[in-house]
Specification:
With 622 residues, this protein is of the alpha+beta class. Helices cover 59% and strands 11% of the residues.
């Protein structure tokens, strides 16, 4: 008896695998819908997660700043020291940058001599490898007459490494240039870690920086007493994903510490230095002017004394001099008197003019406003935030798509397994007659569905974590200048996706089996009686019903006769159609974005900007 039971179980197990081979089309449909669902569930999120981790690894590798500080009156070495002394600040460094003009020759790509002016932001390299540019070709500058440029400049200008680049500063009257020279040798092509947005093609509109190119020079190429920006890195910040809440909380905490502990003191110190230096210069100028005026007045007084003595001498000798000579000397004395009066009046006017200048300078000093610090995190970088927003948008799509796939998968599996169970109705009755329990019979179909789900889930994970991200990375390659992309595996979504789809499909399989297993063996081994026909609502419309053919009438009756099949079919087709239409909608929306944005929202053809240059404030002119 035991041996017979063992043989029956062995034959039953063979029948399970035989069913898989025999029903390979149904098996393949379950496997494929599971693979597609798991791919969409894990793939879209994996691509977004990989984009964030890639950007984070790139930023960490290039030592991108965590906090930046700019000021309306520039920043000094003392500011850097004060920030570096903070406990949680790992590195603080001041850099100088300025927007300059560059000329592109033959900018239209033709042989004609066409010159086009472009703006470029020239930055000094960090001595501590902060915000280190990523080298695409060549090398970074090592001399004060060398410069590294971005790839888009080389593409648009037609220049190559080794060529000469000329920059032009926009200087005000009597303003000294900050750059020691204007001609530089191009040493390399780089990617600025502070601007990973693509500047080529249709994605160039996403860039929000004021300049079209970014250049890097050695710190020694600039002569300036102030920094335009101070960049900071925070301790342990690299241990966190830069787009995570933990990283944002860490940086926000340090921004608050700077705002409350350093900002006000350094602003006041900068204000005191500026006003103190200006006041000392004004006092020195006033003292120097007073000394000069005193000396000039002393010279005039001495001249008056001498003129008076000469006049007395002439009056004493008038009786002994000829009339003609006397007239000449009197005329000379009158000319000297007139010249002396003119000089005295000139000095008085110059004193009044100088006093007005001193008053204006004193008013300028009093008008100097308190410097203002602006403390920002990486969110001020457009490329940094575009990565976050793009990943969030794709993840939103990745939330809706898998739900549709799951619904379609459950409906397909419910239809597929239900038909398979109904077709093997007699075999199920035979199993029950031979003594197999409902649990043993159900196991066959549950294993059938589980194997399809597991194999489909594994295939879906491969496609979701490798194939689909690789396709999306090609799109990201158009949008960003990131030099490489990382692939990762999320255990939660990888195994969770398989579990979710397996639970839905196996649950549908359980329901299908229960509908047949509740019958007796004798009932199962007999052909299933067709459902009783009934009049449908459409038959009441004689005008319509009378025009239908026999096959159309049978079809209409069957639709209402098997309502569950009808609803599953309609639901499956509806879900698949929704997925297809959603794909076309997204494609059409993205395609029309540029046209709508720049054809209807932004209607201008050219934009003029006034660039703010932060440097050492102009001292009162004396």
């Amino acid at each position: 008896m035991v041996k017979g039971k063992h043989m029956m179980n062995k034959a039953y197990s063979k029948d399970i695998w035989r069913t898989v081979r025999r029903e390979k089309k149904r098996f393949g449909s379950l496997l494929l819908i599971t693979a597609l669902g798991v791919t969409m569930l894990s793939g879209l999120r994996a691509a977004c997660s990989d984009l964030r981790h890639t950007a984070d690894a790139f930023y960490d590798g290039q030592n991108l700043y965590d906090i930046s500080i700019v000021s309306t009156m520039g920043l000094t070495a003392e500011d850097v020291e004060a920030l570096q002394s903070m406990e949680e600040i790992e590195q603080a460094e001041g850099v100088y940058s300025e927007v300059v003009q560059v000329t592109l020759e033959n900018a239209d790509g033709q042989d004609s001599q066409v010159h086009q002016n472009k703006t470029a932001q020239v930055k000094t390299l960090s001595s501590g490898n902060l915000n280190l540019p990523y080298i695409i070709e060549g090398c970074l500058p090592e001399k004060v007459d060398e410069i590294a440029v971005t790839e888009n400049y080389l593409t648009q200008s037609g220049k190559k490494i080794g060529d000469t680049l000329v920059i032009n500063e926009e200087l005000e009257e009597d303003e000294e240039p900050n750059f020691l020279q204007t001609e530089y040798k191009i040493t390399g092509s780089i990617v600025d870690p502070m601007d990973v947005d693509s500047h080529e093609g249709v994605m160039s509109f996403r860039s929000t920086i004021a300049a079209e190119y970014t250049f890097y020079v050695m710190p020694g190429a600039v002569e300036s007493d102030v920094y335009t920006t101070i960049y900071l890195t925070v301790k342990n910040a690299k241990d966190e994903l830069c787009y995570s809440d933990a990283y944002k909380e860490l940086i926000e905490k340090q921004i608050t510490a700077i705002d409350t502990g350093v900002k006000d003191k350094r602003q006041q110190a900068r204000y005191d230095k500026l006003t103190g230096d200006a006041s000392r210069e004004l006092a020195d100028a006033e003292a120097e002017a007073d000394a000069e005026f005193d000396k000039a007045q002393q010279d005039i007084n001495e001249a008056k004394v001498k003129l008076s003595e000469s006049r007395q001498q002439l009056e004493a000798a008038a009786a002994f001099l000829p009339s003609e000579e006397l007239a000449v000397q009197q005329s000379a004395l009158e000319e000297a008197q007139k010249e002396l009066q003119e000089n005295e009046q000139k000095i008085a006017k110059e004193m009044a003019k100088a006093q007005l200048q001193f008053d204006d300078a004193r008013a300028d000093i009093e008008a100097i406003e308190m410097p203002q610090w602006y403390i920002q995190d990486r969110s001020a970088l457009s490329g940094y935030m575009n990565v976050q927003s793009d990943a969030d948008c794709i993840e939103a799509v990745g939330t809706a798509f898998p739900i549709l796939f799951l619904v379609v998968a459950i409906l397909i599996s419910l239809t597929t397994i239900t038909r398979m169970v109904e077709e093997e109705r007699g075999l199920i009755g035979t199993y029950k007659a031979l003594g197999f329990t409902d649990r043993e019979i159900r196991r066959k179909y549950l294993l059938y569905a589980a194997i399809a789900c597991i194999l489909g889930g594994i295939l879906g994970d491969i496609c979701g974590f490798v194939v689909l991200p690789a396709i999306i990375f090609r799109i990201f390659g158009i949008m960003y200048q990131l030099p490489w992309y990382l692939y990762g595996f999320d255990m939660l979504y990888g195994l969770g996706g398989i579990t979710l789809f397996a639970a839905g499909i196996i649950g549908a399989t359980w329901i299908s089996c229960e509908a047949e297993l509740k019958h007796t063996p004798a009932s199962l081994m007999r052909p299933k009686a067709p459902k009783t026909g009934a009049r449908i609502f459409l038959e009441r419309w004689k005008l319509v019903w009378g025009r239908l053919s026999f096959l159309n009438k049978v079809t209409a009756r069957n639709l209402f006769r098997y309502k569950k099949r009808m609803l599953m079919t309609i639901g499956g087709i509806m879900g698949c159609t929704a997925l297809v239409l959603c794909g076309f909608v997204i494609k059409d929306s993205v395609t029309a974005l540029c046209e709508n944005q720049y054809g209807h929202v932004y209607r201008y053809d050219m934009l003029a900007l006034s660039l703010i240059h932060i440097s050492e404030p102009t001292r009162p002119r004396l």
